[in-house]
Amino acid sequence: MPHLKDYTIGIQHIKQLTSEISLGTKLVFAISGQITIKLSEQKFYLQEGDILVLDRNTFYTIEGNEDNLIIDLTISDTFFAHYYEDYFQHSFKFFSKESDPGRERVVGSLRKSVSELLIASATKKRANKLEAQSALFQILLLLTRFLKRGVPSSARKEVNDKRISRIIREVEERFDEALSLREFAQKEFLSEAYLSRYFKKTTGLGFLQYLTEVRLKHAIQDLLHSVESITEIALKNGFSSQKHFSEVFKFHFELTPSEYRMEHHSETNLLIENRAAKLGASVEQIAPSPEILVKLAGLYYDVELGKELNKAPFEKKKIDITEKSARCLSKNMNILTIGELKEVLKDNVQKQIITTRDEIGINYIGIRHLFRGSTFLPETETDELVPTSSPYANADLALTFLKQQNLQLFIRLEYQDILGEEEAVFERLDHFLRHCMQVFGREFVSKWHFMFYEPKNTYADKAELKKLYLKLYQIIKSRFPAIQVGNFVPFSLSKDAVPERHTWFLEEADKIDFVAFNANQNEAVDFSKEDTQSFLVSEDHCLSKTLKLKAFLKHHHINKPLMLVNWNTLSGNTRYTNGTFFRGALVLKTMLDLVPEVDALGFWINTELHEGDDSKLNISLDGIEMFHFFNGKRPAFYAVKFLRRLKGVVVAEGPDFIMTKHVDGYQLILMNCATINPRYSVEERFTKEEQKEMHIRLTGLEAGEYQVRKWQFDRDNGALYSKYWQLNSKYGMDKEILDYIVDVSQPTLTVTDETITEDWSFYAYLDINAIHFYEFRSTI
């Protein structure tokens, strides 16, 4: 085992029961066999892959079976405290087998770093010193970021005081020298009386008492593991004489040093005269053979390369499912806008429609420009008694597909579609409805929705808008009373009002089946400013606008279904961020807020059709798309999929979580929503600040055996752009690369078996805007 000032590390085979003291922070990593470590009244049973971290100055006994092998690593107090100033104010006790779920990556990284430190330390090459230091510092980072406890390492009170930390550190380093309170008082420019009171108030012990305890801990180590005389041990550890040492020792342990040594030896059948020989036979140092190195590699195979565990703000969250009144989950109508009806005839659009229907429950297809577009073929003159061509040929093919897929139409009829040819448009509408009834049947057509649309800024007269809507309503209802006809309302959140030209609908509420509206958080952002505050003002914009609109309608005694046909979370103009701003949790959180408040949510099918739409809106900001150009699924797809997967009743919810209970168990969604300027998303240091580590405590669960499934969706687990940019090159990407990106860009799934108690906890490490979806499936 190499003995360095900073640390000691080596492979050991425990042959007999032996007692030790950890003079520093100790890590015991079980490579094989079974090991038992006892601390006072506590026992730890280690098997292959287990790691036990012991706090400094901890007494313990260790024994193992015949084939046990461990890595024994001790990091000196001096080294640790030099790089981590608050070392003496924290405890580092940890046992991997007893840790809450969610610490798997931390344990895996710890195994990997300890193994790398062992290999680098065993090699004498100069270059390996750097590798050893790198592994050692990674271990320190893991310990201080994830495994430290917010309590002192002993029962006495220690606080985060840098002055006391300096004194304690020096006492630990120089305990064997003649130290005095006066010396430290002079160094800290304090009087002895003040430092004495200050030290005792901070640590709970007087300075001399603290120094004596440190010396005793080191002296006990020598009593147990050396054949030195009592006098040699006393002088070696800073006591002025053997007599002084014996008096102090008996006061603390009610035994003299000699009695303590004899009593301990009798426990393990050891005698002083053969102590050194027996110790050599108790622990065997093992050289790291190729077989052992292969074994170690297998114990941390699950650590992903290039994945850094960053320090993140830590949050404890208690979720009590017994104190919440359960509520049922709301179900919505989902509208997938494709542009013109003729787009349904494209193979990739059909595949995307079927995928969204099957996986996320889309049930309405939104179309625009029914008459002004190019779906209908031009009518041709013919002398045929029965025409062999029809202007509805393409429309019939598209509608046949939709009917086969059990999907309905949501038709946006714009004022601009009617302007200038009012009679012709209404005549064609009436003819088209009669044609569809003959070809597809009344039941299919009766489920359609028509939305009359005119944007906020319009030159149309209020009376003109009212007249055209009522005409539209009368024609549709005369043929199909069951068809829902509604109006788009350009409500302004900032003004809490509707533009005067659009207020006609307040007078005709009895002839309006539903109210449609848009909500886009970017409406509230001043993009000329780059400060964070300018973006924060738009938080929860979609929900706020929805609630304000509902209040506005209630004030006017209008109670109609609300349909949010076009919306977006805060994204800014992400064309300038190369897609680096992942926003899955923002989309899901917004939907969770909106679902109880609206009857329908609208989405665009893909980027290509959205950006090809001539709506004259800001196409980069005004809607949420399900697919990218090459059939890759965008974050909204998985957000809606997670929402649809929820079942049962809601038993607990908060700003960043929702939990449900159903007949087969529980479901829990955790979210780390971050509303930021997307331009900051290209700066890795900034996005790291938005990461979050959570310690979740669930109370009120039904105890039992569960299979726990966890889907993780974040920048590195399912986000399309991360793979897109990894595999891009100056020569572009072909179909093989794009297909691979689509296949691998999906949330990762892990499955574990857990024995869950009524009070159960776990850890979750959430990246910016990450979604963690847990299913607790009862196995009974």
Overview in brief:
The protein is α/β, with parallel strands linked by helices. The chain is 37% helix and 23% strand. α2 runs antiparallel to α3 (127-147), α2 (104-122) packs antiparallel against α12 and α21 (584-594) packs across α23.
Descriptive keywords:
780 residues; alpha/beta; 26 helices; elongated; 8-stranded parallel β-barrel
Topology, element by element:
Layout: E1 7-14, E2 18-22, E3 25-32, E4 35-39, E5 42-46, E6 51-54, E7 58-64, E8 69-75, H1 77-83, E9 94-95, H2 104-122, H3 127-147, H4 162-174, H5 181-187, H6 192-203, H7 207-225, H8 230-236, H9 242-253, H10 257-267, H11 275-282, E10 283-286, H12 290-299, E11 314-320, E12 327-328, E13 333-339, H13 347-360, E14 364-368, H14 393-404, E15 408-414, H15 415-418, H16 422-440, H17 442-445, E16 449-453, H18 462-479, E17 484-488, E18 514-520, H19 532-536, H20 541-555, E19 562-568, H21 584-594, E20 600-606, H22 607-612, E21 625-627, H23 635-645, E22 649-654, E23 657-662, E24 665-671, H24 684-688, E25 692-699, E26 704-713, H25 720-727, H26 735-744, E27 748-756, E28 759-766, E29 771-778
Parallel strand pairs: 11-25, 13-14, 13-20, 14-15, 15-16, 16-17, 17-18, 18-19, 19-20, 20-21
Antiparallel strand pairs: 1-8, 1-10, 2-7, 3-6, 3-8, 4-5, 4-7, 6-9, 12-22, 22-23, 23-24, 24-29, 25-28, 26-27, 26-29
